[in-house]
Structure formats: structure tokens, C-alpha cells
């Protein structure tokens, strides 16, 4: 029996996932989490084999959650579920230790297959993601500007892109406003953007924010 922990802040999504799991005789849901902190806490207490982790939740960013899970719950397999296209977050998720990445527009059958694959110890990537991973490893790989950012810079970039202020980001990430401002300066320089308006426009045009 595959024991699942669902981490998603949308009740409708959680209910939908539970209905899919209910149709599978070899799976059952043993816990739910509505933010990053709860996902970390329940990953240690729910006795789950596989965590279905949403990218965009309140609390710690999903990459921070991934790093902490790798340290605190190394046996837990993580399948990242997201509304964001694969080329935006999948590579970062896999590098952070995720066993698979699946967008939410896939079928229930594909989700079930992905869960079984990662539970068995394998990696789950779609054909299009496998092709992307192969191209990124090539000598002439050309990355979009946002892929040149570090994980922390990318996190701050997405928060700025969603319209949050430096002070709001500092509070949420437990950083000083000065540190966040430094990240902002680096981001603008790396991406060759002049101000927050251009940053927000880029984030929206590339569907990097909800």
C-alpha cells in the first residue's frame, strides 16, 4: 500500500487528488498539508511514502521545503505537482531532490503511474521534460534569463514578480530588507532589467507567477 501525503493550499485540488487516489487500490491518503511548514511537520509524523507537493503554497518556498525534507525525511519520495509549465520549475525541483515533476493538466492515470514510479524508487519525467533535460546538458545549451538565477534569487524574483514589496519578502523569508534589496539588485543585473515594472512584466509574460 502506497501511503500519500498531499500538500496543497487549495481545498478543491486536495479533494480532487483524494478522489483519484480512492480509485487506486494500492494507494491511500494518510495526511494533508496546506502550507510549507505543515508539509514539513506532517512529513515526519504521517508515515507517508510519497509526498505530493504543490509548487505555490504559503510558507517556505518549495525549494526550501525540498532542502529541509532531504535533511529531515530522506526516505520520503517527493512528486512535485504544479500549474506551472515544466520549463519553469521542473529542473530546479529535480536538482533539489524531487523524484518527479508533473503538471496538473495531466490525466489521473498519468498521476497514478507517476506515484507508482517514484514509490518504486524511480524518477518520473514526461517525454518533453526528458528532452529538455537532455538539451540543458548539451555544450551549447542556452538558458532563458530566469534560469541563470540561483535558487534563492529565483525565489525572490518570483515574489517580486507577484507584486510583493521588499519588506514583505523580508518578513516572509526571515531576511533583512537590506539582504532582499541586494538580491533584487543582483536579479535585475543578471536579467538585464531596469526596474520592478520590467521584472513583473517578464514574470507575467513567462507565467512564472500565479
Tell me what you see in this structure:
The protein has helices spanning 11-22, 36-45, 62-72, 86-95, 108-119, 127-136, 151-161, 166-173, 177-191, 196-205, and strands at residues 2-7, 27-33, 50-54, 77-82, 100-103. It is α/β, with parallel strands linked by helices. It has two domains: 2-136, 3-Layer(aba) Sandwich (Rossmann fold); 145-205, Winged helix-like DNA-binding domain superfamily/Winged helix DNA-binding domain (Arc Repressor Mutant, subunit A), CATH 1.10.10.10. A five-stranded parallel β-sheet has the order 2-1-3-4-5, with helices on both faces. Helix 2 (36-45) packs parallel to helix 3 and helix 7 (151-161) packs across helix 9. The two termini are 34 Å apart.
In a nutshell, what does this entry contain?
The chain is of the alpha/beta class and 210 residues long.
Low-confidence stretches: none
What is Rg? Answer: 17 Å
- Secondary-structure arrangement, i.e. CATH architecture of the largest domain: 3-Layer(aba) Sandwich
> What is the CATH superfamily of the largest domain?
Response regulator
Q: What is the tally of helical segments?
A: 10
Secondary-structure element pattern, one letter each: EHEHEHEHEHHHHHH
What is the terminal-to-terminal distance?
Answer: 34 Å
Can you identify the CATH class of the largest domain? Answer: Alpha Beta
Helix content: 40-55%
Structural class: alpha/beta
Q: How many separate domains?
A: 2
The total count of strands amounts to 5
Q: Might you state the CATH topology name of the largest domain?
A: Rossmann fold
Largest sheet: 5 strands, parallel
Amino acid at each position: 500500500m502506497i501511503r500519500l501525503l498531499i500538500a496543497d493550499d487549495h481545498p478543491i485540488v486536495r479533494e480532487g487528488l483524494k478522489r483519484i487516489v480512492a480509485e487506486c487500490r494500492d494507494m491511500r491518503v494518510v495526511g494533508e498539508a496546506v502550507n510549507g511548514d505543515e508539509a514539513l511537520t506532517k512529513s515526519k509524523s504521517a508515515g507517508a511514502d510519497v509526498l505530493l507537493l504543490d509548487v505555490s503554497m504559503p510558507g517556505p518556498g518549495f525549494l526550501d521545503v525540498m532542502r529541509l525534507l532531504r535533511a529531515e525525511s530522506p526516505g520520503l519520495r517527493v512528486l512535485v505537482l504544479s500549474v506551472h509549465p515544466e520549463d519553469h520549475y521542473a529542473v530546479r525541483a529535480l536538482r533539489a531532490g524531487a523524484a518527479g515533476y508533473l503538471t496538473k493538466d495531466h490525466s489521473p492515470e498519468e498521476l497514478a503511474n507517476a506515484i507508482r514510479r517514484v514509490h518504486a524508487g524511480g524518477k518520473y519525467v514526461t517525454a518533453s521534460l526528458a528532452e529538455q533535460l537532455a538539451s540543458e546538458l548539451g555544450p551549447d545549451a542556452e538558458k532563458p534569463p530566469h534560469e541563470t538565477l540561483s535558487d534563492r534569487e529565483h525565489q525572490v524574483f518570483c515574489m517580486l514578480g507577484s507584486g510583493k514589496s521588499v519588506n514583505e519578502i523580508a518578513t516572509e523569508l526571515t531576511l533583512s530588507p537590506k539582504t532582499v534589496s541586494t538580491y533584487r539588485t543582483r536579479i535585475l543585473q543578471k536579467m538585464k532589467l531596469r526596474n520592478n515594472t520590467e521584472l513583473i512584466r517578464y514574470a507575467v509574460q513567462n507565467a512564472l507567477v500565479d
